[in-house]
Design brief:
By secondary structure, the chain is an alpha+beta fold. The chain has a single domain (about 5-145), classed as 2-Layer Sandwich (60s Ribosomal Protein L30, Chain: A). About 25% of the residues lie in helices and about 25% in strands. The chain has three helices and seven strands, in the order E-E-E-H-E-H-E-E-E-H. The protein has helices spanning about 50-65, 85-100, 140-145; strands spanning about 5, 20-25, 30, 75-80, 105-110, 120-125, 140. The protein has a seven-stranded mixed beta sheet. Helix 2 (about 85-100) links the parallel strand 4 (about 75-80) and strand 5. The longest helix is centred in the middle third of the chain and has 18 residues, at about 50-65. The radius of gyration is 15 Å and the shape is globular.
């Protein structure tokens, strides 16, 4: 049986549904969609695409750090933008100022988002020494089914 490792960062908003913030498996870290929410109040931070992009990336970084990696370990980003044509330039400028080159592969798509302008989903490579995820709590299929592995 493949072992998945659940990652939960208190510095990033907790999931509001039936999903994990991130799951580590086979040397990769898969983050669920991360929005520009304040981790404490769960309110959207910022009115502009630039402000919301900064908050979303900060939330992504908090989860990455909890897993033992950082922005330079991100290999792929999917960006969901509520107003792709209008906000592309502002999003790209803010994103580019936060991620270190070489930048991850990235896809941006227009999407209907709930109360926010941007949501990010990323995949990162766990750095050497963490690729087995042994520093993270384990979650197997039975824990996923009974809710004990999802931060419940």
């Amino acid at each position: 049986m493949s072992v998945r490792r659940h990652v939960q960062a208190s510095e990033s908003p907790v999931p509001s549904g039936s999903y994990s913030q991130a799951v580590a498996a086979n040397g990769l870290l898969f983050l669920a969609g991360v929005g520009p929410y304040d981790p404490v109040t769960r309110e959207v931070v910022g009115q502009t695409i630039e402000e919301q992009t900064v908050q979303a990336v900060n939330n992504v970084r908090a989860v990455l750090l909890a897993a033992g990696c950082d922005l330079q370990h991100v290999v792929n980003t999917t960006a969901y933008l509520a107003h792709l044509d209008r906000d592309w330039a502002g999003f790209d400028a803010a994103y580019g100022s936060l991620f270190p080159p070489p930048y991850p592969a990235r896809t941006a798509v227009g999407a209907t988002l709930k109360k926010m302008l941007v949501e990010l989903s990323v995949v990162a490579v766990l750095p050497a020494g963490t690729s087995d995820g042994s520093h993270l709590p384990s979650m197997d299929a039975s824990q996923a089914l009974d809710g004990k592995g999802a931060g419940a």
